[in-house]
Amino acid sequence: MNFKYMHPKDEIIEIIHRIYENGMTTTSGGNLSILDEDGSIWITPKGVDKGALTVEDIVCVLPDGRVNGIHEPSSEYPFHLAIYRSRNDIKAIVHAHPPALVSFAITRRIPDTRIIPKARELCGRVGYANYALPGSEKLGEVIAEKFSAGHDTVLLENHGIVTVGAGLLQAFQRLETLDLCARVTLKANSIGTVRVLSEDELELSRQTVTLDEFEPQGHSSKENEIRKKMITLVRRSYAQKLVTSMEGTFSARIDADCFLITPIGMDRKYLTEEDLVVIKNGKQEAGKHPSSSVTLHKEIYAKNSAINSIVIAQPPNILAFGVCDAAFDTRTIPESYLVLREIQKFPFGMEFGKGGDDYPAIADMVSDTMPVVICRNNCIIVTGNSLLQSFDRLEVAEFTARSIIDSKAIGSVVPIGAAEIDELEKAFNL
Ligand SMILES: [Zn+2]
């Protein structure tokens, strides 16, 4: 899907549905707009169900203030106008009341985007606007002031969030990323003490990879079958919030020296079979750009002939364990222990080959007894003998993490005992 060629009405419909499906707005709350080249503002209407909006419902406010459309513009039109007037690089605005960000807005705190790499770059500077009456000129003033000061994301006191962008997709990605930071922080605080990345660590995560290219001589049926399976699972992962629009990598082995991997910088929701990148003998398919973690995938495949698939992701409940000091004990239910075995957390930087002398490479550690590792303040790395097995391990890990976190509201976790673990290992030949 290329937003460059879409009409603003279609863009707004596409993004409002993504926001609604992601649980980031109710039918009544939130509004989106796009500033057109001629100065018109396309905006969601007032009082129409956000879950069932169609292109006909989108309203256009012309530069002279006349309104084209079958509805009135959103009641928050005044603050959209004030934001566009505050900075001329802003071409799109998203406003919503996602529960996790509202938790911050009502406790009057700003989520820290330094809990994971790239979130600060994606979200830009996060500002905080004092409370003002919804729909009022005053609200427009206090928000526009923050955007004039250079913020790209502004939390509204006792209200919600506003993000902006050069396009609607960028504004959406900022909302999604800040919402993830908020959800992870809320969860992590219920199980431990949250740690944020230092400037040096943030710099380390900005590594880029350049591989030599090769021109593929055709595509085998095995390769194309893997492409299809991978796209199916990437889309499922996005729908289940196991990956975000811009983060989350899948790879699968095609043969001894060749694997398929997801690209960098492409929206996971719209990924297609042709976007995937073949890596062969350390070279990348010409004209494509593999995930920045491609070197790690290459090392894991080279050292572990039984591993045929790897998934690297940032699901919220696992990340909550990743950003705090709580240990992740998989001895919760038999499924968790059987599928995940033992999960260890490793220091930030190992996934970039910079873990320090005390730690061996991740490629040397993953095995049948440790198929899954968590990299602090970054991600979970899941390996498997097939795409489906890695995906299943990812799902089980996220479910397990969620059960442990949610259980804090009612009591302490009682893990399965050592004798019962022995019994499981014998019964399932582990
Ligand atoms: Zn609102």
Comma- or semicolon-separated keywords:
binds zinc ion, 430 residues, alpha+beta, 9-stranded mixed beta sheet, L-fuculose-1-phosphate Aldolase, 37% helix, 8-stranded mixed beta sheet, 17 strands
Which CATH-level-2 architecture of the largest domain? 3-Layer(aba) Sandwich
Tell me the CATH topology of the largest domain. L-fuculose-1-phosphate Aldolase
**What small molecules accompany the polymer chains?**
zinc ion
> What count of helical segments does DSSP give?
14
Strands of the biggest beta sheet: in what spatial order? 9-13-12-11-10-14-17-16-15
Helix/strand/pairing class, anyone?
alpha+beta
**What Rg do the Cα atoms give?**
23 Å
Mean pLDDT: 94
What is the name of the CATH superfamily of the largest domain? Class II aldolase/adducin N-terminal domain
Q: What's the number of structural domains?
A: 2
> Main beta sheet, described?
9 strands, mixed
Verbal overview:
There is one protein chain. With 430 residues, this protein is an alpha+beta fold. It folds into 2 domains: 3-191, Class II aldolase/adducin N-terminal domain (L-fuculose-1-phosphate Aldolase); 213-427, Class II aldolase/adducin N-terminal domain (L-fuculose-1-phosphate Aldolase). Helices cover 37% and strands 16% of the residues. It is built from 14 helices and 17 strands. A 9-stranded mixed beta sheet has the order 9-13-12-11-10-14-17-16-15, sandwiched between helices. Strands 4-3-2-1-5-8-7-6 form an 8-stranded mixed beta sheet, sandwiched between helices. Strand 7 and strand 8 form a beta hairpin. Helix 2 packs parallel to helix 5 (137-148) and helix 11 (334-340) packs across helix 13 (387-407). The longest helix is centred in the middle third of the chain and has 24 residues, at 168-191. The chain is globular. The two termini are 45 Å apart. The model has no long low-confidence stretch (mean pLDDT 94). Residues 29, 95, 97, 134, 159-160 line the site of zinc ion (ZN).
